[in-house]
Design goal:
Layout (H helix, E strand, L loop, with lengths): L1 E9 L2 E7 L4 E6 L5 H11 L15 E9 L4 H9 L7 E9 L5 E4 L2 E3 L1 H8 L3 E4 L10 H12 L2 H29 L1 H15 L3 H5 L1 H12 L1 H17 L4 H18 L4 H27 L4 H21 L6 H16 L1 H47 L6 E8 L10 E8 L7 E2 H4 L2 H14 L8 E5 L7 H15 L3 E5 L3 H4 L4 E9 L4 E7 L2 H12 L6 H12 L2
Helix pairs in contact: 4-14, 5-14, 6-13, 8-12, 9-11, 10-11, 14-16, 16-17, 19-20
Length: 553
């Protein structure tokens, strides 16, 4: 809901601050007083195009800001949250115009592009008349309003989800077909690489054992020679370490008989004798079993060389070759099974497409039923709004060859404003005043459907009067019970029905012209309604009539 508007140096407004409340607010004043400035100012804060010509003469910049309470506007609040611009449930829109340079836009103090400001504005306020913010002429808004009127939110979600599933499956199919185009060459490549890797993969898995055996065979002569020398020194020489230790052990035993404290060292020396003998036996066994095998060494050289060659080729470590082989095998299996997968995916798409068509058909049925009801209701309101013989029709045409996430229907609001005229799109078939009245009829008929909290009707009373004007006033007031309504009007029958009243006045001096807008107190409202009733002079009878209009049912 719009709560505040500030204007500085815009056209003939020097400085203006207005507070707004819920309900219906009438905006009145003499012709030429500047009532359209309020709508122009709001339009700027909602993303309308700006021009330096709007800046007050003698000023270098103009500024307009509007504030909204989003407690009753979840769509706008969600948009702000999605763009990280939210500040609780309050929202301030600000537009700065400079005479030299481009205008700047801000939301809650942060700069944003004009396009985003327009996106947000479409969720906050709707202007009905000859203005850019006329949402009802947009096909998407017409479709959304019809679906809300039909109570088709769950059907819309089902259609959107089904459409998304079909699109994702088709994208997967396209990827699979693209891959299939190069599949044969890839299969040949993988087959060759797997043929190279399969013989050596077991060797790569036992790389440590392979390298140990190669090192042993490559140094077999040295191992044989030096282990023989060590065995000779330990147990086979004359003298050898084992014999010397044995002699020393026996000598220490004799001494231990003289002093028992030497028994412990004697035991340690005995253990050393045993370990030297065991080491000597192990070395003799190793030496006798060691073979010099040039053929096996050559085989190991070839195997290790092949492993390192393949590792360099594929730019991996030798130990990673088995995992690479597994990946190649898995890809080859996928490619060779591609035909089967392709058939499965095509079958799945057919199933998903059937589900989409079923959901879209249900949505279309709900739309057609709601379109009939809405057409009749709005047409009836048109007759009551002095558009006798006018017709409104919601055209709901199925276009199954062009499915979208919104279904297969083309929704258009069609109107014939006068008897004998063919139906035409809403934006083309009505004048400004007629469009405002038709918009009013649509808004009244769908009052509980739209989530745009604030509506502005610009001169909705053009071309009407008398009893019809009274009906318009009642409709606007009824709409104001559900939404915030601002109405620019010349008719006292309309203004008298408002919950609140703003008066636009132009003040002209010798060197300046300025527009002011002020809220009216009850007594002032009587005076303004009396002025609107007409006459050069406001008589007691006119004032009584004005008072009666304000206090009437």
């Amino acid at each position: 809901m719009l709560t505040h508007l500030t204007i500085r140096n815009l056209v003939i407004v020097r400085e203006l601050e207005l507070e707004f409340a819920s309900g219906m607010t009438a905006l009145t004043g003499e012709t030429g007083a500047g009532k359209s400035i309020l709508i122009d100012a709001l339009g700027l804060t909602l993303g309308d195009k700006a021009s330096p010509a709007l800046i007050r003469t003698g000023c270098e910049r103009a500024e307009v800001s509007s504030e909204f309470d989003l407690s009753d506007c979840p769509a706008a609040l969600a948009w702000l949250q999605a763009h990280d611009l939210d500040e609780d449930t309050q929202c301030q829109l600000r537009r700065v115009l400079v005479r030299e340079g481009r205008s700047r836009a801000y939301v809650n103090g942060r700069p944003i592009p004009q396009s985003q400001l327009r996106e947000l504005g479409e969720r906050l306020l709707d202007i009905h008349g000859q203005h850019a913010h006329q949402s009802l002429v947009r096909p998407a808004a017409q479709r959304d309003l019809l679906d809300a009127y039909a109570g088709a939110a769950s059907l819309r979600e089902a259609v959107s989800s089904a459409y998304q599933a079909v699109q994702e499956a088709r994208s997967e199919l396209d990827d699979l077909r693209q891959a299939a185009a190069d599949r044969d060459n890839r299969i040949d490549y993988l087959t060759f690489q797997i043929g190279e890797l399969e013989p050596v993969a077991p060797l790569a898995r036992d790389l440590n054992a392979l390298e140990s055996e190669h090192a042993r065979l490559a140094h077999a002569e040295r191992l044989q020679q030096e282990t023989a020398e060590i065995a000779q020194a330990l147990v086979e020489g004359d003298p050898d370490v084992g014999s010397q230790l044995g002699r020393l052990h026996r000598q220490l035993l004799e001494l231990a008989e003289l002093d028992p404290q030497l028994a412990a060292p004697a035991e340690l020396l005995e253990s050393a004798v045993i370990q030297v003998e065991e080491a000597g036996q192990a070395l003799r066994h190793y030496r006798d079993g060691l073979e010099i095998d040039p053929a096996r060494l050559q085989t190991l050289d070839d195997q290790l060389g092949r492993l390192h060659e393949l590792a360099r080729k594929h730019r991996v470590e030798v130990a990673e070759l088995p995992a690479l082989l597994d990946r190649f095998r898995a890809e080859l299996e996928t490619l060779t099974a591609a035909d089967h997968h392709l058939e499965q995916l095509q079958s799945r798409i057919r199933t998903l497409q059937t589900a989409y068509e079923k959901a879209a058909k249900q949505l279309s049925s709900a739309r057609r039923e709601a379109a009939q009801r809405l057409s009749e209701t709005v047409s009836d309101y048109m007759q009551r709004l002095n558009m006798q013989g006018g017709r409104f029709e919601v055209a709901c045409e199925a276009d199954p060859d062009n499915p979208t996430r919104h279904g297969v229907d083309r929704i258009r609001f069609m109107v014939s404003a006068n008897p004998g005229q063919p139906l035409a799109p809403l934006a083309e078939a009505a004048s400004g005043g007629e469009l405002s009245r038709i918009s009013l009829a649509i808004q009244v008929a769908t009052a509980d459907c739209s989530d745009i909290p604030t509506l502005i009707f610009d001169e909705v009373d053009v071309g009407i009067g008398g009893a019809v004007a009274e009906i318009v006033g009642r409709m606007l007031r009824g709409l104001g019970e559900r939404r915030q309504v601002l109405c620019v009007t010349h008719l006292p029958q309309v203004a008298a029905r408002a919950h609140h009243h703003l008066l636009v006045q132009k003040q002209t001096g010798k060197a300046h012209t300025e527009t002011r807008i002020e809220p009216l107190e009850p007594a002032q409202r009587v005076q303004e309604i009396a002025r609107m009733l007409g006459g050069v002079e406001i008589t007691a009878q006119t004032l009584a009539h004005a008072q009666e209009m304000l206090t009437g049912d």
